[in-house]
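User: Fold this; tokens only.

Assistant: Input:
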Amino acid sequence: MKTVRATIDLNRVASLPKGRVDERRLDATTEQDLALQQKAEDADALLDAAKFARRVRKRLGLTQLEFSLRIDVSLDTIRNWEQGKRRPTGAAKALLKVLDKSPESALLALS
């Protein structure tokens, strides 16, 4: 693979590297197209969060009920996370990250 270095002067438009942008397609993009794309990306993010929550729980070898009791979160919340209906935020998201990286320590701290 060939490496190309470019010096960019933001004050000179001519110094910007040439990109592969289909300007006609870009100009034809509507707000509705953007909204649909955003909706699709949000759905993908929910699925990623669901897979992550499920993976953490399964790595711990716990059922949804056992997991919900261990981390003091309702069973419905765990189900919603794993089904992609909701995504963990804030402290719950941080707790899942800690459980993923250091499960023994996290579970010990929670007991």
